[in-house]
Design a protein that fits this description.
Layout: H1 2-18, E1 33-34, H2 42-54, E2 59-68, E3 71-79, E4 83-93, E5 96-106, H3 130-146, E6 163-164, H4 171-177, E7 179-189, E8 192-200, E9 206-216, E10 219-229
Parallel strand pairs: 1-5, 6-10
Antiparallel strand pairs: 2-3, 3-4, 4-5, 7-8, 8-9, 9-10
Helix pairs in contact: 1-2
Length: 243
């Protein structure tokens, strides 16, 4: 089932390129809950969005796809009018998608180490360590990002062999400058863990933080992220909330 669901999500996301309404057939329009505040509810809302975007000849690159129970989550690269990087999260009930979240930002970089926001390891391994790795990433976000205990970084980051993909800041800078307040969801498959968090930026504006970690030998060895401002409620096209 996991392989089938991953393939269905790839087909769904590729529908952004074609605008083909059949791409959203995996979505149950009667029960679908949309958490992107800029998108209308239901499969019809998604089909209309895809049709509109497809007119600009977009390109979609699905870099990584993972499964965690009834959740499929993907790391994506979009080339629309501007180039963007995203994380997409879908929840299944049986054969159909019934809920969706995402976090998308403008593509920047490469960073000072020469890494882009999407390059790096893609292969899932260490499936038996999924829950151990989930707990490690959760503890890191809560202790370092939320509590601001940057002196604890060495407990999570190796002295050598760490790769950062954020185009502007490393984990220490992120902990010092970004105000994380709450972890909403932690999804994991093997050596990859995605944390979904809420907070605000320096101006106090509500912000969603998605952080993807690759873990090896009990340490965080690679990190990708997207940071997106949460649209004002007056601009929402549905009332389900970002999280």
């Amino acid at each position: 089932m996991t392989t089938t669901r991953k393939a269905q999500i790839r087909t769904l996301l590729k529908g952004i390129e074609t605008g083909d309404p059949a791409a959203v057939a995996v979505v149950n329009p009667q029960t679908y809950i949309q958490h992107n505040p800029q998108t209308h509810e239901g499969g019809e809302g998604l089909a209309a969005l895809f049709k509109r975007i497809s007119k600009s000849s977009p390109r979609v690159n699905i870099v990584r796809t993972f499964a965690d129970g009834d959740y499929i989550f993907a790391h994506t690269e979009y080339d629309f009018a501007t180039r963007r990087i995203g994380f997409e999260v879908f929840r299944f009930e049986g054969d159909y998608v019934v809920e969706h979240w995402d976090n998308i930002q403008e593509r920047k970089g490469p960073n000072s180490s020469g890494h882009s926001m999407v390059d790096g390891e893609t292969e899932v391994s260490d499936l038996a360590l999924t829950e151990v790795n989930r707990a490690l990433a959760t503890a890191f976000v809560e202790e370092v990002f939320i509590e601001g205990r940057t002196n604890r970084l060495a407990n999570y980051i190796p002295e050598a062999g760490y790769t950062e993909h954020n185009p502007e800041i490393d984990l220490a800078d992120k902990a010092a400058t970004m105000n994380y307040e709450r972890v909403h969801r932690v999804l994991a498959e093997g050596n990859f863990v995605l944390t979904v968090s809420e907070g605000n930026n320096d101006d106090g504006a509500g912000t969603a933080f998605y952080d993807l970690f690759r873990i090896a030998d009990g340490k965080l060895v690679e990190h990708w992220d997207t940071i997106e401002a949460i649209a004002p409620r007056s601009e929402w096209k549905n009332q389900n909330g970002k999280f």
